């Protein structure tokens, strides 16, 4: 059995969100991106909960960032930001059919589900666990820094980071895509701490990919 990446998560404060249709659209948009880009399988449960299985574990943290960005960028206002708590796990497992996630009991699914259960209502919203416990502590520390950055994104920051990750375009090209000036794009990327997030994702891609060996 090979290693896979599994994300288990739920929307933060979903009970207080009134526009459930818009929330569902944002969440489905993010899940659809992962299916298209990574051949991921996903399932939703309890309305605001979800689980995603990714065949390449090296892409697991990228998937989590893209999913959170999809929620943040579609938030209705600065005072009502949407986000998700996500536990990322890398371990042994198989990709389930989209309607059979409830039957998935392999290591990666168990690790991810249990780790999400340990999250409180505090500020922590992105965590990592692997089957190689010796590597978890430093990956967890790096992820705490990345989590803090993402948790302070505006919808504009989330939008420009998402497009940077999806299209790998220059700032001039992003400006043209969004109908904005290049200095505006530069400011938004700087506010999102884009260089740090980019380097973090590159590091996690290598670290989690090697975990699958």
Query: What structural class do helix, strand and pairing data support?
Result: alpha+beta
Strand residue content: 15-25%
Multimeric state: single chain
Tally of alpha and pi helices = 8
Topology summary:
Blueprint: E1 3-11, H1 20-38, E2 41-45, E3 49-54, H2 60-73, E4 84-92, H3 107-117, E5 126-130, H4 133-151, H5 155-167, H6 171-178, H7 182-191, H8 194-211
Parallel strand pairs: 4-5
Antiparallel strand pairs: 1-3, 1-4, 2-3
Helix pairs in contact: 1-2, 2-5, 4-8, 5-7, 6-7
Give a written overview of the molecule:
By secondary structure, the protein is α+β, with helices and mostly antiparallel strands. The chain contains eight helices and five strands; from the N terminus they run E-H-E-E-H-E-H-E-H-H-H-H-H. It has helices at 20-38, 60-73, 107-117, 133-151, 155-167, 171-178, 182-191, 194-211, and strands at residues 3-11, 41-45, 49-54, 84-92, 126-130. A hairpin with a 3-residue loop joins strand 2 and strand 3 (49-54). Helix 5 (155-167) packs across helix 7. The termini are close together.
